[in-house]
From TrEMBL:
Location of the Fumarylacetoacetase-like C-terminal domain: 87-318
Matches recorded under Gene3D superfamilies: Fumarylacetoacetase-like, C-terminal domain
Pfam families recorded: FAA_hydrolase
Single GO MF descriptor: hydrolase activity
Protein name: Fumarylacetoacetate hydrolase family protein
UniProt keywords, alphabetically: Hydrolase, Metal-binding
Species of the source: Streptomyces ureilyticus
Keyword Metal-binding among UniProt keywords: yes
Length: 324
């Protein structure tokens, strides 16, 4: 049984076995092909988001119409809900996560005790929040994979790690919007697992360059997405959701989005000051504490990750080694 989304309906991309994927409306464990149900026949879910304001009331009506050609969810393949044009990723956005990472990456020559190191980075995080400076970088759409697809671990990735995150899905073009109006540009929310190879995060050949996000985060399939998009109106408070990741049944991440330094509205507004957000774009809000680097246990062949966020469903992915 798949976990059902909050609210009366959700949106996703589905297919029959080996069939052509279609944009679908999920309601009460059944799916309606929006390609046939909407009179303008969208080719994909991104097209629905591009007409979000006019389509949302129609989706409500369709969800309540039992006379339509509904298909049982059971038996359909669930794909990544959409293909974004842009992915914006928030780094160092969970207070406890960054403290844990800083301690995990301490140099053996660091004279500080663990307690001193934690206190120092905690002060830095508090200062960042007070100065209102989010940290955002860009990911590639080619990393997106389905919520139940296998995750191929590249042979060069020596320390692959999980990072379950809340992802906001943009509804309409947003450029230089205020924090107060930013959530009006969010269509809904979904789950993203923003995988990272910890061994290649930092450039060792020239430390002054800093982080290498291309190398460590952008392998094909490194962003399992979904299972579906839940409309924003069905999520009472994106700043109060539980983010949980289990590895082979053992809970590794279990944190509230309350621990975010910068909430969805602040991130959307911040990004929009420099770049234009487009319908279907993803804003990943950062990973909470409990990554593999913290536990000293990185991903390997055969591992099964189960990620859930309150009201957004569950994704399950199995890790497989890249075949030579």
């Amino acid at each position: 049984m798949l976990a059902q989304p909050a609210g009366p309906f959700a949106l996703g991309t589905f297919s029959a076995a080996d069939g052509v994927p279609f944009p679908g409306l999920l309601a009460r464990e059944r799916v309606l092909d929006l390609g046939g149900a909407l009179d303008w026949a969208p080719s994909g879910l991104r097209a629905v988001l591009e007409r979000w304001e006019e389509t949302l009331p129609v989706l409500h009506s369709l969800a309540d119409d039992d006379t339509l050609d509904w298909r049982p969810l059971d038996g359909l393949r669930v794909h990544a809900p959409l293909e974004p044009r842009q992915i914006f990723q928030s780094g160092a956005n969970y207070r406890q996560h960054v403290i844990d990472l800083e301690v995990a990456h301490r140099s053996p020559d660091d004279p500080r005790t663990v307690e001193e190191a934690r206190a120092e980075i905690a002060a830095i995080m508090d200062r960042r929040a007070a100065e209102d400076l989010p940290y955002v970088f860009i990911g590639l759409p080619s990393t997106v994979a389905g919520p139940y697809d296998d995750v191929v671990l590249p042979s060069w990735a020596k320390k692959p790690d999980w990072e379950l995150e809340l992802a906001a899905v943009i509804a309409r073009p947003a450029y230089r919007v205020s924090v107060e109006e930013a959530l009006e540009y969010v269509a809904g929310y979904t789950i993203a697992n923003d995988l990272t190879d910890r061994a290649t995060v930092f450039r060792r050949d020239m430390p002054a360059i800093g982080t290498d996000w291309l190398r460590c985060k952008n392998a094909p399939g490194f962003t399992p997405l979904g299972p579906w998009i839940v409309p924003a109106e069905s999520i009472a408070d994106p700043g109060d959701l539980r983010v949980t990741l289990k590895l082979n049944g053992e809970t590794m991440q279990d944190e509230s989005t309350k621990d975010m330094l910068f909430g969805v509205a602040r991130l959307v507004s911040y990004i929009s000051q420099s770049a234009q957000l487009l319908p279907g774009d993803l804003v990943l809000t950062g990973s909470p504490a409990g990554n593999g680097i913290h536990w000293g246990r990185l991903l390997r062949d055969g591992d099964v990750m189960e990620g859930s966020i309150t009201g957004l469903g569950v994704q399950r992915t199995r890790c497989v080694e890249e075949k030579s």
